[in-house]
Model the fold of this input.
Amino acid sequence: MTVAAPHDAGFSITVEPSGRHFVVHGDETILAAGIRQGIGLPYGCKDGACGSCKCKKLSGEVELGPHQSKALSAEEQLAGFVLTCCAHAKSDVVLESRQVTEAGAFPIRKMPVRVLALTRLSHDVMKLRLQLPAGEPLQFHAGQYVEFILRDGARRSYSMANAPHTLSAGPGTGIELHLRHLPGGKFTDHVFGVMKEKEILRIEGPYGSFFLREDSSKPMILLASGTGFAPIKALLEHMKFKGIDRPAALYWGGRRPEDLYMDDWVREQLAEMPNLRYVPVVSNATPEDNWTGRTGFVHRAVLEDFADLSGHQVYACGAPIVVDSAKHDYVALAGLPEEEFFADAFTTEADKALP
Done:
């Protein structure tokens, strides 16, 4: 039987099969404690909405805070699964999480940033380029995200769309974000309405466990919907820079062709990355779009081309419905090993408000 440690000493969390240990103190969640101590637990939204941090509790007692049933169902809870982002340890706990990485979790830092440039990529997507403080490089893995800390303390998360090596390209580079306008959205209304160059914002990061697993040589499916392309773009830049030539197929889905807002950029990469394939997919084309490419749901296009994913890795990013459907179908229908599905679901504030 697990004996509870004195509360002020915290409780010990052990992660199997890696055997890594860390301590959770007071009222912090297991995930927050893991992040603080550089333990590479998988996670996405940190709000109980996406399910990325779900893992099996092997022993111990936890109390789960508010979360959505689509992230953790009642059946999964009964089977011993927990969401580390809203789990509070009530004793020493042993978890099973196969995505714990030994390799560098970078320090999470708060810093001011200056708006360098605002560029419209489509009617509802803005490229935001942010200048970091001089002499304070932000260390991150391609595919991770930062959070804006708004004046009222609210936070908004956006993936970085460029790879770390691009920051050393000189002044004027900065980090790149792709923001979709959600009308009525506290932050994006500001970005698309009154934001100007030189405005100062505050960010914190890097966050997220969405980055390329370079210890694998498996061929990859890169699946993006909408602005879920941002972290995929960072992965592609990183692969090109590092000379990673594993076969990769990028499937990018949008409702209309204009939603594939950097289609030209992707096509330019194909000339320099011979092992990269690109399949754009449009779900709601109209006659005036003159679209002659693939149609339907982007995650299904992958299944049409790959009946067997048992030897692949999948990196999926975008709307939760796309990411969730992809994981379910690729595992159930195409034999993808569950631990080879890496995802970052873009949960909006509206998504988080759902029951």
